[in-house]
From TrEMBL:
It holds the Pfam family HutD. InterPro entries: RmlC-like_jellyroll, RmlC_Cupin_sf, Uncharacterised_HutD/Ves. This is HutD family protein. It comes from Rhizobium lentis.
Amino acid sequence: MRILRAADHKRMPWKNGGGETVEIAVSPEEAGLAGFDWRVSMATVAADGPFSIFPGIDRTLAILDGNGMELDIEGGTPVLLTTASDPLAFPADIPVTAKLEDGAITDLNVMTHRDGITHRLVRIELAGGKALPLTSPTCLLLCHRSTLSFRHGDETGALAAGDALLIENQAQSALEIDGEAECYLVSIATR
């Protein structure tokens, strides 16, 4: 288990040069945009435009802040994502265009290599204590708003807004969390 502090997240340009992303975690560590197995990041989208294309990658997107963004995913009906929407999964290797509803948004982006890795992203509104089942070999808990405390076995700690907890090789266990916070749980597994 490892705490990834918000101040240590890596900032880098988007693949298409249209903005900046904040990389929370990537595997393998130090992998570039073309060589990752999985990647969790946040980005601020300040203008309408196309998403970067990532061949062979599946993506899930959630809106963290802002008034929303409409995604026009090739072959589908446009979808409006807001902070109240469930995370949206779609292929990262087909054309997608974003149109902002009213001003900039910040999103959470999870990407995995389709040839062997799957992921799931869920939003959790925490009001008190909760046990989160860890069903995948790799899980990442991002604290988005406020703070929370956690316990896993004998290990305890706290996360502030923007911090994440990376948990590896702990499938079939549970993470106990407590607080008043909004957070996101990413579960990553091999096929």
